[in-house]
């Protein structure tokens, strides 16, 4: 891993840490006021320069319980690729309900930062039953190690 990529990955985690203690609020993305897990990832990776500003469109709070379309994975596959072993700054995404629908920023081997319903943005351990009892996949962003020459 290049020194530049290490800086990018550290920037992702630093951006995620800014959101700690922000309350959980479905479809919101205002630092300190409210955010859900999808918007947390969008805001963090955009602020770190790894994805453009995107709008996932409207989605019901329980969409993953009643639909089979892998909307979350569709976005992840657009900007990243699936990996077996995550590194700092990668994305972990769990299957809740019928689809992969809960994402987080990987901090280290076991820790993540995520927005969790009724809790808000927190550090969590992937070994906790509320996460470990669900299927998980990991993604890395395509722009890691790529410089935009300061053209953000």
What does it look like?
This protein is of the alpha+beta class and 152 residues long. The chain has a single domain (3-52, 68-141), classed as endopeptidase fold (from Nostoc punctiforme) (Alpha-Beta Complex). Helix content is 29%, strand content 26%. It is globular, with a radius of gyration of 14 Å. It has helices spanning 3-18, 37-47, 63-66, 71-79, 129-132; strands spanning 29-30, 34-35, 80-83, 91-96, 99-106, 111-116, 120-125, 136-141.
CATH homologous superfamily label: endopeptidase domain like (from Nostoc punctiforme)
Overall mean pLDDT stands at: 90
What about the largest sheet? Answer: 6 strands, antiparallel
User: Which consecutive residue ranges, at least 5 long each, have pLDDT under 50?
Assistant: none
Write down the domain tally: 1
Silhouette: globular
CATH class: Alpha Beta
According to DSSP, the number of beta strands is 8
The name CATH uses for the topology is: endopeptidase fold (from Nostoc punctiforme)
Q: What is the architecture at the second tier of CATH?
A: Alpha-Beta Complex
Relative strand content: 25-35%
Helix run count? 5
Estimated radius of gyration: 14 Å
Structural class: alpha+beta
Identify the strand order in the major beta sheet: 3-8-4-5-6-7
Helix residue percentage:
25-40%
Give me the strand/helix succession: HEEHHHEEEEEHE
Q: How far is it from the N-terminal to the C-terminal residue, by CA?
A: 22 Å
Domain NlpC/P60: 6-145
Family: Belongs to the peptidase C40 family.
InterPro entries: NLP_P60_dom, Papain-like_cys_pep_sf
Protein name: NlpC/P60 domain-containing protein
